Amino acid sequence: MALLLLALLSLGLVCQGGQGLMPPSELKQLSAAGSKYIDTEVENAINGVKQMKTLMDKTSKEHQAMLHTLEETKRKKEEAVKLALEKEKQLAEKQDVCNESMLSLWEECKPCLKHTCMRVYSKICHSGSGLVGRQLEEFLNRSSPFSIWVNGERIDELLDREQRQERRFEDLEERFGLMEDGVEDIFQDSTQLYGPAFPFFRTPPFGGFRELHPFFQHPVHGFHRLFQPLFEMTQRMLDGGHGAWEHPLGGFASEPRNFSTDRMVCREIRRNSAGCLRMRDECEKCREILAVDCSQTDPVQSQLREQFEDALRLAERFTRRYDDLLSAFQAEMLNTSSLLDQLNRQFGWVSRLKNLTQGTDGFLQVTTVFSKTPNLEDPSAPADTQVTVQLFDSEPLSLTVPGDISWDDPRFMEIVAEQALQHYKQKNTM
């Protein structure tokens, strides 16, 4: 008996509800009904992928406008920095005018500056005081009071910040390119789906050979994951950078410690001893250097210093503007990538069907249908129906339909097709 049942199943004949064998023609009807549902879902998914493409095209246009604004801001910033460097050079050539009075103050300023800086470092940093102390002493010995007088660390900070901005911009651009390529890849793969139900799609003559970043070889593209870590890292950097040097000595005992700020200060002192010049206000003799007036000896020097300060302020303003633009761009990419992820989870599965030819019987094939063993706890209840189907090119899948829905009820194949498609989506989006 078991052998006979297997033989019937292999021929595609089915028993349902104890009502005899189902001929192949009725299996074909079920397949057609299920395929009609799948066709609708495929078309909806293709339209969803088109939404992704439209969103990405719009984002790309806005990106081009952002690039133009960034380029203009960068140009103005670089011009201001260049002017400040020229004025600093001219001032340096004239520094001997007031050198005598400055040098005596500088000799008293240096030990105080070193002591103050090392006191801050020892208080908030865990290690490296000896090395940092030697580096700072060497720096101060080869420096001049001119560094204090013209706020020389501001130029160093601008140049250093410019390098960080460039790295951040390049990172954002690379991630944007990956997101753009990923959406284009999904779109192109979706348009390779063709068959009788989708005559408006044709296989492109040159498709499917684009090299993609390994990130996009996974089922879930995870566009949001491109930008979330970068956003968090930048936020920590900006939170730590603002005000890190404003009150280096005050508030440690009475206010909560900001460990992000502490790390920023420690790293800055280790990396660049010039950062300690920011603490000049803590030392009386250093403040006196700032107050030295050379205009009576050389009026041109006073004018040069004013021009230098103006150029510095302008460069700093454009530097902040550039940072703000990068942050706005990054936030926009974070939001866009989140929306693209939502659309991809909902519709991206259709891109897995690239180069799949739809057969004459449709995408969904019903191979077996039979009633399961009745529920012993409630023998009067109709037995559930087990249906074996094959969707697209996947492996055969066994599904269950409640026994109160007969196979000739339109809801029967809707349930089967919906279950089969959900299973396919889960398998191809995890």
UniProtKB/TrEMBL annotation:
GO terms for molecular function: amyloid-beta binding; low-density lipoprotein particle receptor binding; misfolded protein binding; protein carrier chaperone; protein sequestering activity; protein-containing complex binding; receptor ligand activity; tau protein binding. Keywords: Chaperone, Coiled coil, Cytoplasm, Cytoplasmic vesicle, Disulfide bond, Endoplasmic reticulum, Glycoprotein, Membrane, Mitochondrion, Nucleus, Secreted, Signal, Ubl conjugation. One of its GO terms (cellular component) is perinuclear endoplasmic reticulum lumen. Residues 1-20 form the signal peptide. Residues 211-425 form the Clusterin C-terminal domain. Residues 60-95 form a coiled coil. It is a peripheral membrane protein. Pfam families: Clusterin (PF01093). It is found in: Cytoplasm, Cytosol; Cytoplasmic vesicle, Secretory vesicle, Chromaffin granule; Endoplasmic reticulum; Mitochondrion membrane. Residues 19-225 form the Clusterin N-terminal domain. PROSITE patterns: CLUSTERIN_1, CLUSTERIN_2. Transmembrane segments: none annotated. One of its GO terms (biological process) is chaperone-mediated protein complex assembly. Belongs to the clusterin family. This is Clusterin. The gene is CLU.
